Batch of 2 targets.
Target 1
Amino acid sequence: MPAATDLTQRGALVTGADLDIGRGLAAALAGAGARVVALGPCADERVMSVAGDIGSPDGAGDVIARASGALGTTVDVVVHAMHPMGDATAAPSSFADVTDAAWDATWERTMRSTLFLFQAAFPAMRDGGFGRFVVVTPTLSMSGAPGLAPLAAAVEGQRLLAKSAARQWGAHGITVNCIAPAPELALEGVSAASVSLAAPALGRAGDPRADLGPVVTFLASEAAHFVTGATLCVDGGVWMAP
């Protein structure tokens, strides 16, 4: 493995391990040599698991502390693949009928958990002079999604948070990027027909480990030191606008 993409000296936390995409990305990082902790259960024997709730500052701080303890080192890489899926997001609803409860359960929860996770992980990365954040932001944030307005807004909000953090934290050697997979790959319970503008040019939405994993591994490595604030589409060729 080229030295620039060798992750054997890195500790990584992956959220969303209850989803195929989280498990797949955790496995990909472990395959690249990183020590990996997943937030939630993960069947891969190379990946450790911790429990916790990143929905509050204290909760996010506790998750980072538990992950660091399990790793025996600092958390250098955070891959945030967790998205709220429940009645408010999985079932399409009219834009005019979006309720306060649906908005809070989706937009507020997504934005707060992302913000708190970033804030909790930042100090150790700053002090170590190296850090990598990768946020999974499905392409529906760029294309829109009929009936999923709160979720589309939340995912686009995550992309804006990532850009703002990237601008502020670059001086500390920290990069913040997003990957944009096909929505049905990242959001279990969402059908391709409800969110996709076209069929994937490559014929499939992709596999989290085999297709998305190499991109996340690259972004987590030294090789991607000059890439920040970017969104890399890894949806098999659905979204092609600049």
Target 2
Amino acid sequence: MPKVRIVFDRVRVEEKMLEQKAIELGHDTKMIDAKTTQINTESKKNNFDFGDVVIERCVSYFRGLHFTACLEFLDVPVINKFEVANNCGNKMLTSLLLRKHNVPTPKTYFSFSSDAALETLDKEGYPLVIKPITGSWGRGVMALKDRDTADAIVEVRELSDGPLDRIYYLQEMVRRPPRDIRAITVGEQVIAAMYRTSTDSFKTNIALGAEPIACEITKELDDVCVKASKAVGGGILGIDVMEDEKHGLVVHEINNTVEFKGLAKVAKRNIPKEMIEYAIASAIR
């Protein structure tokens, strides 16, 4: 049986579910801590026990991305590939690829200084949503409703002055119901979807307390999610979709190491099983 390795930097419910399912399916399965793994430019694949395929599940985007680069250097099959992880982990790259491949997505503005960002806000009008170009769980995502709020955010960014603080990602605020849709694609299939609802914030992250509700996978949802997956390179992905009152379904984010414990509660298909089987099939092609 194929050997499955799951790389982590923090073990969450999802990693435990994947490990348990891989063992149940009869695979030689091991968990590998990225934080304690050492790789160098002289390393060879046979110096490690990376099995037949690695499922990269690091919480840290940058740790997982660079670990994936090392795995590909060693010619170890890894899900997802470096290119996909890079495309999905950077919201600006995601938005550009979605638009380039004609996937419906909210209008998004990019500025490379605080002055230019404020000019965009004054020109386009409030509110716009500001997001850090990397990050998850809704952290740093805020609705800029007026100039005072925008000035305060700019001040904070200029004080911290990190390299990513200088890149401003501003997105139109979509008129939608108080929910969004999280769909999981495995290869070119949508295997599960849920509504994430929230009553006390425009954010709908499960990590922030949003409630998962089963969502029917309509042809429209399937088409837009598969198209979005192809735009960033495919693999195992979480596609975040909003129901725009004017334009229909629009994709606003794509997740590379998607969390699925909430969705697993309402999904009809076995999510970890689908992921394990896809990873193995990808490795032996």
